[in-house]
Task: inverse folding
């Protein structure tokens, strides 16, 4: 009964958002709602564009797109206040701009790095953290810790929202 | 120099003559002053800042005035020492200097300072160790100090100094160290570096056992290191609270391991959930309203329809059950769409609204009122 609405009129949305905020979703309701909104929009877009086939290739490609959309919407919901969100947005944009050539280069460089890391027994924790947090390479350790804390917070909200969406759709 | 300027505005000719030496003298003088202060206010380390700043001000005033009246630069040192010593004696603590060396009092301060500033990273457990180390550093420093200081002025100074400096107590050195630690913090405050923002007034500095290191030139490095370390520790505490199960773990390495593990886990969860969403039945369309309702948790038992043909049945079911919010939404939509005229909706929704009109209009108005 509920029909697809990728583009949604804002009035009713605002009503719902108001009701949502009043129910105190989380410590940062604005971020959560804006993330949800963006993510759903992206999801609907992906649904519309891709053919609805169940082949493995299509599913994996869609999965990748959904993952990128989730990270991008989270980063844009956070805004430019955080270094990791800025780095994430740049990464997504770069990825969108030059897809083919960059992907090949990235694959090669990553493979080389993996080979190099294998020889090094003890990968430093700090380097590991830098690798995990977006934009972590060009930060001092103190700032890296701060960004990690914020990143963990946003990741938990992201996982919460995605899980509730997935649960909702699988019932 | 900055301390002087901070504490009192009358850093006059004395400061202009030889900034380096005077700064040094003020440094260890302040250390002594702070000893007295800290001992006074041992229970409130946080408020010692103002005390520290207050006392040097008065002392600095005296010191600045006195050297002007006397002759050369080494004189301020004994003057300072005497004043501070008197100050300390009034407080009831005796100086701890070996009587054999003329400039011992100054050297003790210097050496203790050096020892703490230089070796602030390590902390040993034994009480005797720092005293021994400071004594060693004392003896090490004595020779250069002897060479540099003016013997005559020192002798003049030493006579009043020696009788009261007979005792050697580790307590004083400990106190000095505490003083130095707080002196460092006050230095941070006065130097006005950005690191001072990180210093928390209520934070108690641990008792620092340090090993003397010869050749550590300036204090600013260790100051900077200490401030940086405090920053990092504060951030680590935050992270420990965020990551579940991390507060019990002690030790930076393990905590970092846990944090990395947690981040990797969350990223894997995101990937897994995106896979789930990709594999979801593609005929289900995403509706923002219903999903928002789900977010709030209003929907309890309503099942999500997967095809348009089921819709009439669903409508009836939902009417029987509690009316979820998205129904209201559905009814709101036609009005909005008719106004907005978005094409994508109307094509889909015409069949729907034919059902709506008969049954749920009356209910919807009630729901709308409830919602709003």
Result:
């Amino acid at each position: 009964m509920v029909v697809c609405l990728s583009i949604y009129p804002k009035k009713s949305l605002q009503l719902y958002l108001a009701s949502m905020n009043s129910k105190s979703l989380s410590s940062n309701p604005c971020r959560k709602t804006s993330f949800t909104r963006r993510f759903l929009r992206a999801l609907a877009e992906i649904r519309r564009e891709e053919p609805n086939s169940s082949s493995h290739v299509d599913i994996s490609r869609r999965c990748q797109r959904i993952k990128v959309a989730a990270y991008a919407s989270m980063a844009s919901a956070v805004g430019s206040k955080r270094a990791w969100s800025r780095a994430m947005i740049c990464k997504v944009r770069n990825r969108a701009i030059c897809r083919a050539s960059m992907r090949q280069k990235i694959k090669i460089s990553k493979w080389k790095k993996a080979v190099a890391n294998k020889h090094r027994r003890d990968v430093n924790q700090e380097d590991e953290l830098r690798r995990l947090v977006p934009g972590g390479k060009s930060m001092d350790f103190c700032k890296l810790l701060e960004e990690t804390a914020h990143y963990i917070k946003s990741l938990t909200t992201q996982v919460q929202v995605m899980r509730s969406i997935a649960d909702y759709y699988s019932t | 120099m900055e301390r002087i300027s901070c504490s009192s505005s009358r850093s006059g000719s004395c400061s202009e003559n030889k900034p380096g030496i005077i700064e040094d003298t003020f440094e260890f003088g302040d250390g002594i002053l702070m000893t007295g202060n800290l001992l006074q206010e041992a229970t409130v380390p946080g408020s010692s800042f103002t005390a520290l700043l207050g006392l040097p001000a008065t002392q600095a005033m005296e010191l600045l005035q006195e050297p002007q009246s006397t002759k050369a630069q080494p004189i301020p040192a004994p003057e300072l020492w005497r004043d501070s010593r008197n100050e300390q004696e009034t407080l009831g603590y005796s100086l701890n200097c070996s009587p054999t060396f003329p400039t011992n009092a100054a050297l003790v301060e210097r050496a203790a300072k050096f020892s703490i500033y230089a070796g602030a990273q390590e902390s040993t457990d034994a009480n005797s160790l720092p005293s021994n180390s400071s004594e060693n550093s004392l003896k090490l420093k004595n020779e250069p100090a002897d060479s540099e200081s003016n013997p005559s002025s020192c002798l003049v100074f030493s006579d009043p100094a020696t009788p009261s400096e007979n005792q050697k107590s580790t307590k004083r050195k400990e106190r000095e160290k505490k003083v130095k630690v707080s002196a460092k913090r006050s230095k941070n405050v006065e130097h006005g570096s950005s690191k001072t923002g990180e210093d928390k007034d209520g934070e108690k500095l641990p008792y620092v056992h340090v090993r003397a290191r010869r050749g550590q030139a300036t204090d600013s490095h260790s100051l900077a290191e200490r401030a940086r370390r405090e920053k990092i520790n504060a951030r680590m505490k935050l992270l420990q609270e965020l990551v579940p199960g991390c507060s019990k773990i002690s030790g930076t390495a393990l905590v970092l391991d846990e944090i990395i593990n947690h981040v990797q886990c969350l990223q894997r969860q995101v990937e897994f959930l995106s896979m789930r969403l990709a594999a979801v039945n593609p005929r289900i369309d995403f509706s923002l309203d219903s999903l928002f309702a789900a977010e709030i948790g209003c929907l309890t038992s309503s099942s999500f329809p997967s095809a348009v043909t089921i819709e009439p049945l669903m409508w009836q079911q939902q009417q029987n059950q509690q009316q979820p919010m998205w129904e209201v939404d559905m009814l709101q939509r036609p009005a909005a769409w008719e106004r907005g005229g978005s094409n994508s909706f109307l094509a889909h929704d015409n069949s729907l609204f034919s059902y709506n009109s008969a049954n749920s209009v009356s209910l919807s108005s009630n729901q709308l009122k409830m919602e709003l």
